[in-house]
Amino acid sequence: MSAITVTRLSKSFGAVRAVDDLSFTVGPGTITAFLGPNGAGKTTTLRMILGLVTPDSGSAAIGGGPYRDLVDPVAAVGAVLEAAAFHPGLTARAHLEILRTAAGLAPERVDHVLDQVDLTGAADRRAGGFSLGMRQRLALATALLGDPAVLILDEPANGLDPAGAHWLRGFLRAYALQGRTVLVSTHVLAEIQQIADHVIIISDGRAVFTGPLAPGSDLEELYLEATR
Ligand SMILES: Nc1ncnc2c1ncn2[C@@H]1O[C@H](COP(=O)(O)OP(=O)(O)OP(=O)(O)O)[C@@H](O)[C@H]1O
Fold first, then answer.
1. How many Å lie between the centroid of ligand 1 and the Cα of residue 12?
2. Fold of 4-226
């Protein structure tokens, strides 16, 4: 079964057709790059997959069903959509603790995800003083709290320093190797090329390329060709 299935999804905002009869599947255990020019409809698609935007037509499913029907949503999917806003006065640990309690997860999950994103040393610092990269790590930690089978990330390397970006690639690779699914929207082709095994490219809300990324193939060339 596909981890994510998008079927003939369409969404307009006024006269703007943001997503236009879009279909694709994301296989389990893969890292899929979700690419397209500015305004192509990537974020709108991700928001529809996550039940945050209602499609005009079509459907999106995670693990076989729509988001709203998931029995255990935090275990099914974790997402980092935009640079998340954190309360500046709360520590990283406090943010995670609030979410953990709300989701009814085990107490040890907080320390576990802090360790996963390498933020243990800053756990008791206020998020207001965090750098962009640290906020990205905290956002990723919130997405990981439920130990989800599917991870959906929008520009996750934004703000990470070179060592952080390297770390993130290793983290996502290891995540997929556990049989989990990663869908990453990004414009940084050189980064994602190193880890993605599948590619979905959309333009004007429609799929212009879907398929595996062969080792050694040039993603930038593929992208420029598909979006010309
Ligand atoms: N809430 C909204 N109201 C009006 N228009 C919207 C809304 N959300 C998205 N749009 C429009 O839909 C289109 C697709 O936007 P979307 O954010 O999905 O693109 P994207 O591929 O994520 O772009 P980027 O790479 O720049 O982040 C754009 O023309 C955008 O202006």
1. 10
2. Rossmann fold (3.40.50)
